Amino acid sequence: MAHTLSGAHNIRKNETRRLRNKSAKSELRTQIRKVLGAVEKKDKKLAETEFRAATGLLDQAAPKGIIHANSAARHKSRLAARVA
Question: Alpha helix (H) ranges present in 1-84?
Fold first, then answer.
């Protein structure tokens, strides 16, 4: 339990942010799985479409601090290699 009003406020903000980040990470992982699934099925067109969507999500998540910028770059690079 927080000792001050500002501490209680920070706890509420952190919980809100945690839930938002959790949702965004889940969406990101799902999209990455879709890309890998399309690659495994050898469906080039679907893989490229899903890859573009995954790249967009990664590009949005990195500046918001949901994932580290280098992590986003690494995921994009590895997915691009798989799709190619």
Answer: 5-40, 44-64, 69-83
